[in-house]
DNA sequence: ATAAAAAAGGATAAAAAAGTCTTAAAATGA
DNA sequence: TCATTTTAAGACTTTTTTATCCTTTTTTAT
């Protein structure tokens, strides 16, 4: 809808990781993908990239896997989204006009602004950990049961 | 941003068509594309499709071209958007969950809802003709001058 | 040391979106 | 009727997104 496939997979993966490693453990990409219904190799790429960008953490070898530090878990979701998708969603004219700004605003400029602002607001005030705690309450499912 | 390239081109094209044919004339795809900075053949496809779906009108032959009837000009922009892009933007879970609804809502479900609703509202209450009248006032440009 | 487990990296493939080109059909006017 | 203008249709190419596979590196445990 708003995000790329890779970004969707990443958010779901993070929710799962946080819940599986509440006790400080790590979890492998195979297990993650099975549980969030995401393609394995593709999602692995995205997670590796997020790890490189310090949005999540990873450790190789037996007993290794992906996890989030306390600090990372308390960062807003928008960080992850921007790391994966960049900020095309958050900027640029809705009609694709080369020249659209306050000085010469497209006819939907001021209508789109609050929509975008609201999206930024939601993603900025929601922390990774918040997503995970909703999941732990069992109110929704990461895969069809 | 929210729309596909084809959809952006189509909106821009409609604005231009409405303004060029205020007096009931028609305008060719070549002239349209030159003036809204859109790829010609690709945009032609989109416009032809919109014509088939009765969102806009067209007539072949010399003196022919694209135009909108009074009725078409007064339809909301959301009709055009749905004709080109379908309604994926307006529905589906933001996290791509197979199972996301009021009964088991994803952690961003209620946060995304007003955003989407607002998008639908704006596109429903803005008529094609509204976009064009903003353009005729010269407050924005369809191509870099 | 060696085997096994895991992420990391690179090359490749498939699918979808975006864009081009060529020909056909329709309409018009001479 | 014939040439011209314009949309319509279809096949094709390119680019981007999504996805897979294979190899390498790191780490751990035996």
Largest interface: A-B, 47 and 47 residues
| Binned strand content of chain A | under 5%
List the secondary-structure elements of chain A in sequence, H or E.
HHHEEHHHH
Q: Tell me the strand order in the biggest sheet of chain A.
A: 1-2
Helix/strand-derived category of chain A reads mainly alpha
Oligomer: homodimer
Tell me the helix content of chain A.
Answer: 40-55%
Mean pLDDT of chain A: 96
End-to-end distance of chain A: 23 Å
User: Can you summarize the main beta sheet of chain A?
Assistant: 2 strands, antiparallel
The radius of gyration of chain A is 17 Å
| Record field, number of beta strands of chain A | 2
Shape of chain A: elongated
Uncertain runs of chain A:
none
Q: Treating each run of at least 4 consecutive H or I residues as one helix, how many helices of chain A?
A: 7
